[in-house]
Automatic annotation (TrEMBL):
Gene Ontology MF annotations: DNA binding; DNA-binding transcription factor activity
Domain of life: Bacteria
Organism: Pseudooceanicola algae
Protein name per UniProt: HTH-type transcriptional repressor NanR
UniProt keyword Membrane present: no
Record gene name: nanR_4
Family annotation (PANTHER family): TRANSCRIPTIONAL REGULATOR, GNTR FAMILY, UXU OPERON TRANSCRIPTIONAL REGULATOR
Amino acid sequence: MLRGLQPPEGHHMPDAAPLFERIDRPRRLPDEVATSIIDAIENRQLKTGDRLPTEAELSKRFGVARTVVREAISLLRYDGIVDSRRGVGAFIADPAHKSTFRISPACFEKRKRIVQLLQLRTGVQAGASALAAETRSDDQMQEIRRIFAEVEAADNLGPDVALELRVDNELLLYRRIAEASGNEYYIEVTMMIETNIQNNLRSAFLKNAAASEFGPAVIAEHRAVVQALENREAEAARLATRARFEKAANGLAQREDFL
């Protein structure tokens, strides 16, 4: 039985979070359905060889017409993400056999939202870093150094081994810097940005990190921020932080291979 789906009548299974949810946003629905299925694959709710529910089941679960589901499956089949077998159904394909590449409108929307959040972070984090350089305590600085060491260690392991650890520690690093500023508004906005990333854009954010946020050059940019805080150099902290997030935002906006 496909994980997260309701069993046939007459059978019982413990309550669990649904695999898919209804789509209510006024966007192109086939792309939304396809993106939801891709997210389930990336979150390992669906694995290679798993059979997708029937068109009728997916139509009911998403709250869309069967024609929408049919087009979404066609998009996934075109991308090599699913393999349709006549009279049997659609199955999750082996990613090693994927031979085509298509960026859907929904994927572009995710990239746009991440870029916007990075642009917002640029000003907020730069201001927080400058203030933190002047106000941080020795204990706060020790914690910032510790987290940066965790970022470095995860980066050295590479995205195949420590992607989530690397991303989560980087988010934590700049949250701690915001807290060291002592300004509750910097803290509040930083938490809002982080929550938005974690709850709504995590999969896309992780993909982008794996593709472009690992390596000594990026680590050097983070190190410059930490060093400026260590030296209590407010302007250096502001500039280093601004440079880090401007580069991240601009790099993502210019990429053509995102998602």
